[in-house]
Specification:
This protein has about 190 residues and is of the alpha+beta class. It has one helix and nine strands, in the order ββαβββββββ. The protein has a domain of about 110 residues: CAC2371-like domains (S-adenosyl-L-methionine-dependent methyltransferases, Single Sheet), CATH 2.20.130.10. It has a four-stranded antiparallel sheet, covered by helices on one side. It has a three-stranded antiparallel sheet with strand order 7-8-9, with no helix packed on it. The longest helix is centred in the N-terminal third of the chain and has 48 residues.
């Protein structure tokens, strides 16, 4: 029998020639490279998704802070005339515009006294800007109201309320004292 080259050996029991490394279990270099490529694509995709979710959380947090600022600015607005106010709160720049709009007829009082001016309706719009061209706008309406006049009695500086009864004379009461059916307290 002659000498055979090294990579070739006789197959077991069948008399054919095979390569020596084909009979061993394991992965080839090409299979390992393909597996690493697929794994690296998966890892890169997961890292990008994680990074994008962090950006979304940051943008959402900024938006929530802008909404809170705009809501606070709208609640603080007690307009009596038209105007524009601006300011800055942290990273946020805000602008509050107040303008008078005509009151709808169905909301106007049927009778007004000559010394009382008709009610006004204000539109209050708040614009909040932050970051790179990010803007939030909020608008609301506001009508200033005057406190209602005291009903029938008047309040003195000492906390005593003078009230009148339809059936009896004027009787003073102090807050915290019980009243009889002929007496009544006014707020």
């Amino acid at each position: 029998m002659g000498r055979r080259p090294w990579p070739w050996v006789d197959g077991v029991g069948i008399g054919r020639q095979t390569r020596a490394w084909e009979s061993q279990a394991g992965f080839t270099l090409l299979e390992v490279l393909v597996a690493l490529t697929i794994l690296s694509l998966g890892v890169v995709t997961l890292i990008q998704l994680s990074s994008q979710s962090l950006r979304v959380v940051k943008v959402s947090g900024d938006y929530q802070q802008a909404v809170q600022l705009a809501d606070r600015m709208a609640m603080e607005a007690k307009p009596t005339e038209e105007g524009v106010e601006t300011g800055q709160d942290g990273l946020f720049q805000w602008e509050r515009r107040t303008s008078v709009v005509p009151m709808p007829d169905e909301f106007l009082p049927k009778q007004t006294s000559p010394d009382q001016e008709p009610p006004k309706l204000f539109v209050v719009s708040i614009a909040v800007r932050w970051g790179q061209n990010q803007t939030l706008e909020l608008a609301t309406m506001y009508t200033p109201t005057a406190p209602p006049p005291p009903p029938q009695g008047s309040v003195s500086g000492t906390g005593t309320t003078v009230s009148t009864s339809p059936t009896g004379p004027t009787t003073p009461t102090t807050p915290g004292t019980p009243t009889t059916p002929q007496q009544r307290r006014t707020p």
